[in-house]
Write a structure and sequence with these properties.
By secondary structure, this protein is of the alpha+beta class. It has three helices and six strands, in the order H-E-E-H-E-E-E-E-H. The longest helix has 18 residues.
Length: 169
């Protein structure tokens, strides 16, 4: 499958211009501790439904010690989780779905095109393609130093908090 064109040219956003820091992100996303995969959001365009965020990767990431000891590589599932968290942040902030939590509904056309290591700034660009009451569809691309390392389409679904907590009981 050939690479898609970039959703947003890197010249259109400034990684030093923070729109939402970790505290702002926490207002919309419930992930905490090791599962927080965003450091900041640096671009939001409600007209084009595009959002850009990043995660600064350190040697202390939970996956470093065991994912390829000696040559730590960010797992693909963690890359996708970062994209899902950015899509969830945007969806919740702009109240695009009537749901307290947005969960994974599926993935399509995911491709990994490069490696990501501790010390990298992992940039995620997400573009909302479609929102219905039961599902949203979002295209995402992940970059390191403006090089595409991962891309695909994810689907998000509304989760009912009462149903989740009832299953735990």
């Amino acid at each position: 499958m050939p690479k898609r064109p970039l959703i947003l040219d890197p010249s259109e956003y400034d990684l030093n211009h923070i729109v939402a820091d970790i505290e702002d992100i926490r207002r919309y996303n419930r992930q905490r501790y090791e599962m927080e995969q965003l450091t900041a959001v640096v671009f939001e365009d409600a007209q084009r439904c595009v959002c850009v965020g990043y995660k600064d990767l350190t040697p202390n990431e939970f996956w470093v010690r065991g994912h390829m000891p000696g040559i730590p590589l960010m797992p693909g599932v963690v890359m996708i989780e970062a994209a899902a968290q950015l899509a969830s942040y945007y969806t919740q902030k702009y109240k695009l779905m009537d749901a307290p939590i947005i969960g994974f509904g599926g993935l399509k056309d995911v491709r990994f095109r490069g490696v990501v290591r501790p010390g990298d700034r992992f940039v995620v660009v997400a573009k909302l393609l479609k929102v219905r009451s039961a599902m949203l569809t979002c295209e995402f691309q992940c970059l390191v130093r403006d090089n595409l390392v991962c891309e695909g389409v994810l689907m998000g679904i509304p989760l009912n908090e009462d149903a989740i907590t009832a299953r735990q009981a």
